[in-house]
């Protein structure tokens, strides 16, 4: 179970101000490309699941993930997540031909994937049905180590606009939320509790109000 604090920033000005404030605590910045897949009859998304390939820094690495059963309340997100590393070359081939992902559901495959086995068995998406590439979005993620917390400052670029958000994965979400909210308030940065995850925003085709 992945548990995160998710606070939305209203605009690029707020994002830049927070980035400047946190700059002494900066660890690294990733350029991420997120590509999503579903069955031809939305077998995954209608069951609140998301199958994703994430590429980092121009294909330096690739991660296959399956997220399911998301909830988000008062800025605290909980979601079941499973991840597996994947060769970026194979990942790109799967973007071009999504059916290749399903070949990894075979336990005898050289690139056998527990995630793809779950997609086949739990969601009924098999080689006969195939997979559909939904497209995706890019994200610039700056990571900071601050007050014992790992903060992720995101600039998410959808085709229909840009969102700004600060996230913190933690086993103590209430405590982390208090600390992050104090950081924002003490520096005059407006924020609101995120009400949807990035995939839900992507599917909606519009920025949250």
UniProtKB/TrEMBL annotation:
Residues 1-206 form the CYTH domain. It comes from the Eukaryota. Pfam families: CYTH. PROSITE patterns: CYTH. InterPro entries: CYTH-like_dom_sf (IPR033469), CYTH_domain (IPR023577). GO terms for molecular function: pyrophosphatase activity. This is CYTH domain-containing protein.
